[in-house]
Design goal:
Number of strands: 13
Structural class: alpha+beta
Strand content: 15-25%
Shape: globular
CATH class of the largest domain: Alpha Beta
CATH architecture of the largest domain: 2-Layer Sandwich
Distance between the termini: 28 Å
Oligomer: single chain
Radius of gyration: 19 Å
Number of helices: 7
Length: 247
Amino acid sequence: MRILLAIDDTDNAHSRGTGELAALIADAILRNNWGAPGFVTRHQLLVHPDIPYTSHNSSMCFPAEIPEGSLDQVVRFACDFLERECAEGSDPGLCVAVPDRIGSTADLIAFGRKAKREVLDKEQALTLARRLGVHLSEHGGTGHGIIGALAGVGLRLWGNDGRMRGSLEGVLPGQRLRVRELLDQPDVDAVQTADGSAPGEEESVLIGDKPKTVMRDGLSVLLLCAAPDDGGAPAWQTLPRKLLRDY
């Protein structure tokens, strides 16, 4: 079965980031033969004076395909891991959802989208999680991280928010690859321009610094923009980091 696991508010200004902790949980799922995790996505939530956060108020989420019997092990491990590894002064939260068991996912997606534009509270998150049968737990401090954790699952489930943590493996900055070669990468479902059009599979792409995919329509999409015309150079380049911040 497919699960979505999200964490939020696990760090302080001097500790490992939430993204690194999410990646370590994903690695443990694979290492312990509990299932096969997908890549971690970063989801930007509302930045507001009434919301405590370390740096950018973003949550981290990843999917995993696991056997039915592994769910309790994964949840127990993630709970223990957060209580052991989260930074002093953090307010960590964990959410683990099985989308196929939720029934209607519209309310969960709506909660995630709302967290990008409104200040939400813990009781709203807990009430929704109980109603949907989603695991949501606090692991230190005020536990306010449950809001971002639940929102992260909703946004990943929506499939139109977030960008890959880290950078795309299997490619190097400065390489020139065909679109079809990029489509062969395991974490690339589609290659598109920012307006949603798809370049031809034989068109050439210059790989920039730390290329990342973004979530669009439930797909992991590598975005391109026009490359500078310096005579014979590729027509396309991967979207620069400063533009990826919009995702």
